[in-house]
Amino acid sequence: MFTGIVQKIGLIENIERNVDSIDFHISTPMANDLSIGQSISHNGICLTLTRVTKNKYTITAVEETIQKTTIKNWKTGDFVNLEKSLVYGDAMDGHIVQGHIDCTAICTNILKKEAGYYFTFKYPREFQELIYQKGSIAINGVSLTISKIIDLNSELEVAIIPHTYENTTFKHLKAEDLVNLEFDPLAKQIKRQISLLQL
């Protein structure tokens, strides 16, 4: 479990494609405090470390993860948001993030203003019931608040303050790029309960 507060940015140094999986070799100073078997959020995807060396570690993505997330598009030289899993007693500065991606979305617009940046994303219409004004959402593993909902186009907008912009991969994001979305677990549970009542 995570909070959506990015701790470091990792650099994908090498990629090894296997028959039904992909190994990613990631460089980050965080590696010096990690061990094999730990779960780390990579752009919102919970992945297990399979090898750890000085300043580097390896993760493996299997077929389901490859198909359902942006990981299929990752390239050598790309940057990823990193967050260690939550430890009992840690501050909950973001919101509950499970590291289980619900879908991907396309960045349709980036607007720079004096106070920060406004990013708009188009997501699959089937998930409209899981978002609400001022609700929480994790985009590439970053805990954010939905600032605007455009139901007609199945789009949502989030405001990014300069600190978040500079300390996450949002500064590398461009229009038409694909991102990982994880909706608020509370919203998913409420939708599930309502659907059961309607049976």
Summary keywords:
199 residues, Elongation Factor Tu (Ef-tu), domain 3, 2 domains, six-stranded antiparallel β-barrel, six-stranded antiparallel barrel, 3 helices, 12 strands, 13% helix, 43% strand, globular
Task: Give an overview of the whole structure.
By secondary structure, the chain is mostly beta strands. The chain has two domains: 77 residues, Elongation Factor Tu (Ef-tu), domain 3; 95 residues, Elongation Factor Tu (Ef-tu), domain 3 (Beta Barrel), CATH 2.40.30.20. The protein is 13% helix and 43% strand. The strands form two sheets. It has a six-stranded antiparallel beta barrel with strand order 1-2-5-4-3-6. β3 and β4 form a beta hairpin. The longest helix is centred in the C-terminal third of the chain and has 13 residues. The protein is globular and about 50 Å long. The mean pLDDT is 95.
Write the layout of secondary structure elements.
Layout: E1 8-17, E2 21-27, E3 39-42, E4 45-53, E5 56-62, H1 63-68, E6 79-84, E7 103-113, E8 116-122, E9 136-139, E10 142-150, E11 155-160, H2 162-167, E12 178-183, H3 185-197
Antiparallel strand pairs: 1-2, 1-6, 2-5, 3-4, 3-6, 4-5, 7-8, 7-12, 8-11, 9-10, 9-12, 10-11
